[in-house]
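Milestone M4 deliverable, item 7.
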Amino acid sequence: MKNTMIALLCMCLASVTSVSAQSPVAYADGTYKFSYYAPMADEVTLQGMGALHKCKMLRQSDGVWTYTTPTLPSDMYAYNFLIDEEVAQLDPGNQQVVRDIDNYYNVFFVQGYPANYYMESNVPHGRITKVWYPSALNGMQQRRMSVYLPAEYDSNPDKRYPVLYLLHGSGGDENSWLDMGRLAQIMDNMLAEGKCQPMIVVMPNGNVELDAAPGESPYMQAKPKANNVSSMTGRIETAFPREVMTYVEQHYRTINDKEHRAIAGLSLGGLHTLFITANNPELFDYVGLFSAQTTNALNDKKIRGFKGITKGLRDLASQIPVVGEKWENKLGEKFDRYSEITVYDSIDQKLSAQFATPPSLYYIAVGKDDYVKKLVDMHRERLDAAGYKYYYNESDGGHTWNNWRKYLLDLLPRLFVGKI
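Output delivered:
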């Protein structure tokens, strides 16, 4: 409790003391200096991703804590300050803030490649729409998605466009690729340079438990969780074609054939991508798996077991003419939870159907230190054994946005240009 009060006091002091000071300060040698005013703190840690992971700051005599980085390569860096290992605080000297799941970070950019693509530039800007679409998923009536429309979309009312469906990871939502992924800036900058085809990009909410990003829903106020197990039971994959795609193709000027549809996802979104495309081989000609969770840890035997559970629940419910509301809800909840689990079974047969008319691009990317690399390697071995062609991009680093943004930069120029 004491440490919490100290942290809150530090936050207040920082807000009135340092708000006018720019942070971090960049030096000519490519290093960056961070400062945070916390005179009552016993310890302050700069925490972020990559080179900014858990950097201990030094206390100066005036109560300001400082840390100077080594020379940083070009990238987007996200960070905040951890006070006495308890409370994370934003930098009052930096007004650029993004959210990742339930954490907020300041960001800054080191110019060059790839960060120049992540920054706002003096180029034509596309338009982001946030829309609700009808959905019966998890007992809801509607869900939310973000849609990027290229800058030329409104000035070319007769032109139709290919579509990239871009899926987030566990704990994410329809804003993830806009906040941490910098999708809008990447698309604007690449289109301005002629590096990719004009396209619509659709970013749905793939979290079964939430209908929209935190604070965006008038119906639900639940906090997102990093481990979203309920989104690994086949329900997202089953609902995707009939709900997400149906809405998009009815409300936007899309080209509605396989050759003009692409889908890519990171981590959990990679799982969804893999099985949406394997179960619907006629839909997508371009497939992207970024650090993909290639299995939901269920083999065919376990899936058959779950099928038995749902059949048993269905039989039980049919034999009880009148059930109390509590038990009816419990049975319905359990049946709904596992009713679509067969999405994951018989993957070899499904891949065989998918690659009978192979996609123009089956793109796989993962970091050398990524904890899902073993799963990705197993999936590649499955593809190799069957002779299926794919493009493989192995990078440095791990399971991070730093990699996923780069994979998107690599993928976009390859879309809608024919066989690769």
